[in-house]
Write a structure and sequence with these properties.
It contains 16 helices and 14 strands. With 384 residues, the chain is of the alpha/beta class.
């Protein structure tokens, strides 16, 4: 069977969103025994081209009889920025279209992606989306990264909202040569985010390598990484998810001792979109440990069975680790701006990699069953 799907997501940009799109499509096909025929709406692509209304009434009318399901998400779809004025979502559309386009709608593992200390706009429009979904008996789900708690702090109790695993947990991988890895040493991936530096590196950070309060998070991190290279003879692989991440990684390289840079550090590729996700995340699968800031750095590590330590400045990183029972493997940068808790976590993880991997392996089938159960609900909604 073929399932004709209109899928609004970020399809061709951030590799983390590529992971979730690839994982979502693969698991839906597996669990529903169907092949997806996808008509994509690339949400970020629309924004980059200045398109504010991403699904118009005219387009919805044209789609009647040509699709079986509208799929929205996942990823950081609940953001509430100025451009989200129609729906409160990064997929900006008039909520009335949920009734006009008379096929099932599934909002799939949406992330409440607002940064700390920022204002959520258009909450009334988001509430309208939820009202339409509930009235029609459709499905609205958020990912397992604390998004439900953040949503309910904004809108109050939402009993019809379901929490499910982010589909990035199921990113497929493809075997390929990985010259970035050192076959004779344990390989530690370092994933830092180069956008919104002041928010990601603590409330006092002002720009790369400098802080209003005398904190220098990049130099602190460089000293800590040099320490684990010396203590544990590990190899570092710098792992940008976006080209913008190279800005902060460049500052990290400047702060690392030259012996570490020249003898114990390589750089992974920057790839885009769902089609490249299997190649990109093979690097995660074969790493020994990941240190990361982005949500899908945590999500894909756990999904692939790789030990992970979070540098949590966005609530989704610590929230995900908390929801899967790994809360202790994270350092909150706002609460610990000097990263003084990180060396002990790294030493503990590197000394017990086998134990940590076994703990993650026990989680993976539990998460997968939660996703199967949600897909069964989609099947019932479709009458399949």
């Amino acid at each position: 069977m073929t399932l004709r799907v209109l899928h609004a997501a970020t399809h061709g940009h951030n590799i983390g969103d590529g992971a979730l799109v690839a994982g979502m499509h693969a698991t839906i096909e597996e669990d529903l025994g169907t092949r997806l025929e996808v008509t994509p709406i690339d949400v970020l692509g629309c924004k980059l081209r200045g398109r504010r209304n991403m699904l118009t009434e005219t387009e919805a009318a044209r789609l009647r009889g040509k699709i079986d399901l509208v799929l929205v998400g996942g990823g950081g779809m609940i953001e509430g920025g100025k451009s989200n004025y129609l729906s409160g979502l990064n997929f900006n559309f008039d909520p009335e279209l949920i009734d006009l386009l008379d096929v099932p709608w599934v909002f799939y593992a949406l992330g409440f992606n607002q940064f700390r200390h920022t204002l959520f706009l258009h909450r009334g429009r988001l509430r309208r989306v939820l009202e339409h979904v509930e009235r029609r008996g459709l499905l609205f789900s958020v990912r397992n990264d604390g998004s439900r708690q953040r949503l309910e702090r904004l809108l109050g109790p939402q009993p019809s909202v379901v929490t499910i695993p982010d589909p990035g947990c199921y990113v497929p991988t493809r075997a390929r040569p990985l010259p970035e890895l050192d076959p004779d040493r344990r390989n530690v991936l370092v994933q830092l985010a180069g956008d919104r530096f002041g928010q990601r590196f603590g409330s006092g950070a002002s720009r790369l390598g400098r802080s209003l309060r005398g904190r220098d998070p990049i130099r602190n991190l460089a000293a800590i990484l040099a320490g684990i290279v010396d203590r544990h003879a590990v190899h570092l692989v710098l792992c940008p998810h976006l080209l913008v991440d190279l800005r902060v990684l460049s500052s990290l390289v400047d702060a690392l001792p030259q012996r570490v840079v020249r003898e114990s550090t390589t750089l992974g590729p920057v790839l885009n979109g769902a089609g490249a996700a299997p190649d990109f995340f093979e690097l995660y699968r074969r790493a020994d440990l990941v240190i990361g800031m982005r949500g899908h750095s945590a999500i894909c590590s756990v999904g692939l069975g790789t030990p992970f330590i979070g540098l949590a400045s966005h609530d989704k990183v610590g929230g995900f680790l908390d929801e899967v029972g790994l809360a202790e493997w994270s350092v909150d940068i706002d609460r610990d701006p000097t990263l003084r808790g990180l060396p002990a976590l790294l030493d503990r993880a590197i000394a017990g990699l086998g134990h940590y991997r076994a703990r993650i392996e026990r989680l993976r089938p539990v998460l997968r069953q939660q996703t199967r159960d949600f897909h069964a609900r989609i099947g019932r909604l479709l009458g399949r």
